[in-house]
Automatic annotation (TrEMBL):
GO terms for molecular function: aspartic-type endopeptidase activity. Disulfide bonds join 121-127. Its main location: other. CDD domains: phytepsin. This is Aspartic proteinase. PROSITE patterns: ASP_PROTEASE (PS00141), PEPTIDASE_A1 (PS51767), SAP_B (PS50015).
Length: 514
């Protein structure tokens, strides 16, 4: 993989790590902030840092408008334009203090705190490459001093809480609690195109139980409705990166009507999602529904390894061969098929053949040692632990093919191929740029409606011609029950579908972006 692509991969996973978005300027009290275009530096020296252990930890750490207001009065809508960094990061500007000190932030629906670097950050290199908040230069600063830390996969930002006025577009939120970051370890924040993060999630996940900024917008009467919406421009050659609108929506940036689904769990903007389809064919994994999150702070699409592997196979993405997976197919493939044909409960099959236990709700690995004869060929306790997840994946894969009336030989060959496509733990999956037009549509069922993503939308492409390099927009992330299985619909999805976050009615809505 070339250095250009690696630079983009880091950019992608930085924003994914944080669980990413942005802001606009004014017209009849509708506030818009102009967006600048960030051009990709083909000779980015920081790409070399991707070889470091710190960068590997970053990649492996993902767990994270002329407006007519249709949801509120036109004089109660605030608009923030977004910058687009190669479809990987969307960000905009806010001002903190009086007079305002300008910061570039990601607007992140996957978190709820506002933080920016502090002028008291002395020991972290990242702070010297970004704007820093100076409380001594603000007339509206109020001391808090309570310590705070936000943990990410590759480290934590830490600092202390303060109060000050925050300007978003033309709106000024009074006495907003935020974090002055005094420590930003690692390469993550050093290479980021943003200074800090502005969380748009619910207070339930706010560190220190700090009131999110958008709550205060409503409380202080700055916007009439507790609603905000995103339009992300995926055309990197265009000047506008997109817009974030507080208090309403821009009807010029979507087509038709939104499909709304209720928020099922406050904290993140979480809702129930139906099955995932590859080339119009159901995978069967989310037939009984999966949890999903609409997350502007995640660049890619993250989902269960079982389905991501099926997508990898369909689009020809590279992966790593799983010997445990192949062992399951070799030793138990025929048995699994026989049980599926006999209409056994798919969720109990792996426990029936002794690779997992079943607690009534989900499977767990067998954690006890078993003594077997050396030549028995059966799995012992430690090996069974490793074979439980591949068994569960194999059951889903085989079931999906049997429902399509495939032959036994085809099913076994298909599953063996999937064993070679298991996503790398590093999260990267490169694809052949010349084959994009032949890749299938990948679709998500939300609110009974199917939302399609074309390969041109879910593949990130860097460069043109023979030097072009491409990576898949899908990455594996397994969240166990009861929180999971979980899908994270990031900027790839929100770029295709205009998204409304309606806290008043506790719902999320999607419509085709215009």
């Amino acid at each position: 993989m070339g250095s250009n692509l690696k630079a983009v991969v880091l950019s992608v996973f930085l924003s994914t790590l944080l669980f990413s978005l942005v802001i606009s300027a004014s017209n009849n009290r509708l506030v818009r902030i102009g967006l600048k275009k960030i051009k990709f530096d083909q000779n980015n020296r920081l790409a070399a840092w991707l070889e470091s252990k710190e960068a590997q930890a970053v990649r492996a750490s993902v767990r994270k408008y002329h407006i007519r207001n249709s949801l509120g009065d036109s004089d109660k809508t605030d608009i923030v334009p977004l910058k687009n960094y190669l479809d990987a990061q969307y960000f905009g500007e806010i001002g903190i203090g009086t007079p305002p000190q300008i910061f570039t932030v990601i607007f992140d629906t996957g978190s709820s705190n506002l933080w920016v670097p502090s002028d008291k950050c002395f020991l972290s290199l990242a702070c010297y490459f970004h704007s820093k908040y100076k409380s001594s230069e603000s007339e509206t600063y109020k001391k808090n001093g309570t310590s705070a830390a936000i943990q990410y996969g590759s480290g934590a930002i830490s600092g202390f809480f303060s109060y000050d006025d925050v300007k978003v577009g033309d709106l000024v939120v009074k006495s907003q609690e935020f974090i002055e970051a005094t420590r930003e370890p690692g390469v993550t924040f050093l290479v980021a195109k943003f200074d800090g993060l502005l969380g748009l999630g619910f207070q339930e996940i706010s560190v220190g139980n700090a009131t999110p900024l958008w709550y205060n917008m409503v409380e202080q009467g700055l916007i009439k409705e507790p609603v905000f919406s995103f339009w992300l421009n995926r055309k990197t050659e265009e000047e506008a990166g997109g817009e974030l609108v507080f208090g309403g929506v821009d009807p010029n940036h979507f087509k038709g009507k939104h499909t709304f689904v209720p928020v099922t769990r406050k904290g993140y903007w979480q809702f129930d999602m139906g099955d995932v389809l590859i080339g119009g064919k159901p995978t069967g994994y989310c037939t009984g529904s999966c949890a999903a999150i609409a997350d502007s702070g995640t660049s890619l699409m993250a989902g269960p390894t079982t389905v991501i592997t099926m997508i990898n196979q369909a689009i020809g993405a590279n992966g790593v061969a799983s010997q445990e997976c192949k062992a399951v197919v070799e030793q138990y493939g025929q048995t699994i098929i026989d049980l599926l044909v006999a209409e056994a409960n798919p969720k109990k099959i792996c426990s029936q053949i002794g690779l997992c236990t079943f607690d009534g709700a989900h499977r767990v690995s067998i954690g006890i040692e078993s003594v077997v004869e050396e030549n028995s060929g059966k799995a012992s306790g430690g090996i069974r632990d490793a074979m439980c997840p591949p068994c569960e994946m194999a059951v889903v894969w085989m079931q999906s093919q049997l429902k399509q009336n495939q032959t036994l030989d085809y099913v076994l060959a298909y599953v063996n191929e999937l064993c070679d496509r298991v996503p790398s733990s590093m999260g990267e999956s490169s694809v052949d740029c010349g084959n994009i037009s032949n890749m299938p549509t990948v679709s998500f069922t939300i609110g009974g409606k199917v939302f399609d993503l074309s390969p041109q939308e879910y593949i990130l492409k860097v460069g043109e011609g023979p030097t072009a390099q491409c990576i898949s927009g899908f990455m594996a992330m397994d969240i166990p029950p009861p929180r999971g299985p979980l899908w994270i619909l990031g900027d790839i999805f929100m770029g295709r579908y205009h998204t409304i976050f309606d806290a008043g009615k506790l719902r999320v809505g999607f419509a085709e972006a215009a």
